[in-house]
Specification:
This protein is an alpha+beta fold. It has a domain at about 95-165 and about 405-425: Dna Ligase, domain 1. The protein contains twelve helices and 18 strands. Helix 1 crosses helix 3 (about 170-185). It binds adenosine-5'-triphosphate and magnesium ion. Adenosine-5'-triphosphate binds near residues 25, 219, 242 and 340.
Length: about 425
């Protein structure tokens, strides 16, 4: 891909590129970081996905083609070629793991080095070889019995502790995705959990301050992120999405998949209306022999509602079981294409007993109009996160080798990533 006279792209520090690899569509955004402005989108490309399911590659060649197409469209629009990308992760195995680590300090003033040591101890303690750490985020610091400390430096004590939040994913699925992207001659500059990225794309300051639950309703997977005290505090994923709603409609009204997708977008709603019994929905036949038939709208609505309701209930119960509902805030923000289903926010309000809204990307200059919907929240958040270096210990790609010695990765050259994190956060 040297049609623009060689790759400049992400070797130029001002140019940033991301890939949102989804079950329904693959998106590539290329942007330039501009002082006082943020990121200006120079080129955007979107292409229907194939060979991908629930964030996992199921057909290497087809997935590679989808990625190549999206990247090529973005490169042509930006008039430059990219060499590396930050990519989203929305696997079924996306999970949160919280650990508390204490280290002894010398009863003197807490310094950067003490913070680094306690974080590195936490990273070294993580011992699940089949999992990769995508993010490691300090939630709370403690000095002796004092909890909830934002910045322990300058304080005196004997014991320094930290509550660390690890966001992890199964390593096998990440390796396949990484391999597929590398086959497109792209280096992976970072991997970000999708709902975390979506949060950066759509959440407003008040929501981050007060606590909020973001639900990204994609085609093949629904992921959730809880933000508390401006930090990502919890993530989870359920391998169900808008494509399941389509399949349910196809089966329920006996129509082909494509026709069911059209019925869903034209008539689908997660909420009943009084006239639903009277309105009839035209349903194309399965085979050439059959004829177009009609089914009451109430049937379509009940099919849609039961699938969305079930998904929300699973998430609600998982948040509760994990103890995350206690800090999940009073607000739900829905992103992803399936959030556009009519009645989805109202149903979320009913199930979660919180206020709900649809999240649309904001704060990006040059974003094409057709990318301003909730289905572009992840892509936009990924590129906005380039500016938001806060609260990230891991800024490069995660270790996918499966035989990690954690301390090596993070210390990298003495004062490594955790030190950089400290500088950026305090
Ligand atoms: N207007 C609409 N009404 C209902 N559903 C919609 C609408 N627009 C898109 N969808 C659904 O949204 C889903 C795709 O959402 P999205 O583009 O966020 O998925 P993705 O990011 O490719 O997939 P995933 O995140 O699951 O890997 C599809 O199931 C599609 O049918
Ligand atoms: Mg998605």
């Amino acid at each position: 891909m040297s049609f623009f006279g060689g790759r400049s792209g992400t070797s130029n520090p001002e140019i940033v590129a991301i890939l949102d690899v989804g079950s329904s569509k693959t998106v590539c955004l290329i942007g330039r970081v501009e002082p006082d402005l943020g990121v200006r989108i120079l080129g955007a490309g979107s292409h229907a996905s194939a060979g991908l399911k629930c964030g996992a590659v199921v057909d290497m060649q087809l997935a590679e083609q989808s990625i190549r197409q999206a990247v090529q469209k973005a490169e042509e629009a930006a008039k430059l070629a990219i060499s590396s990308v930050v990519v989203n992760i929305s696997t079924r195995s996306l999970r949160s793991r919280h650990i508390h680590v204490d280290t002894k300090i010398s009863n003197a003033e807490v310094t950067d080095r003490d913070l680094q040591r306690v974080i590195d101890t936490g990273l070294a303690e993580f011992d699940l070889p089949d999992q990769a750490i995508l993010h490691a985020l300090p939630l709370n610091w403690t000095v002796d019995d004092e909890r909830g400390i934002r910045d322990p430096r300058g304080m005196f004590g004997q014991m320094l502790g930290v509550d660390l939040h690890f966001v992890t994913s199964g390593v096998g699925v990440l390796r396949n995705l990484a391999h597929c992207i590398e086959r497109c001659h792209l280096r992976i500059a970072g991997m970000r959990a999708s709902p975390y990225a979506a949060g950066s794309g759509v959440l407003v300051e008040d929501e981050l301050d007060l606590g909020v639950t973001l639900i990204d309703m994609g085609g093949g997977i629904t992921t959730v992120a809880v933000f508390h005290d401006r930090t990502l505090a919890f993530v989870d994923a359920v391998g169900v999405g808008g494509q399941n709603v389509t399949s349910d409609i196809a089966t329920g009204v006996t129509s082909p998949w494509e026709a069911a997708e059209r019925i869903k977008t034209l008539y689908g709603s997660a909420l009943e209306s009084p006239g639903d019994d009277q309105q009839m929905v035209p349903c194309p036949p399965m085979g050439a022999q059959d004829e177009l038939h009609h089914e009451p709208l109430s049937l379509v609505t009940s099919i849609v509602r039961s699938r969305v309701e079930e998904t929300f209930e699973i998430l609600r119960d998982r948040l509760k079981a994990a103890g995350a509902d206690g800090f999940a805030g009073r607000r739900i923000v829905l992103t992803g294409g399936a959030a556009e289903l009519s009645g989805a926010p109202q149903l979320a309000e009913y199930i979660f007993k919180k206020r709900a809204r649809i999240g649309r990307p904001h704060g990006l200059v040059g974003l094409p109009d057709h990318m301003s919907g909730p289905d572009y929240a992840v892509a936009c958040g990924l590129i906005k996160q380039v500016l938001d270096k806060k609260k990230q210990i891991i800024s490069g790609p995660p270790d996918l080798s499966g035989n990690r010695v954690r301390t090596k990765r993070y210390v990298g050259g003495g004062l490594g990533q955790s030190m950089r994190w400290l500088k950026e956060n305090f």
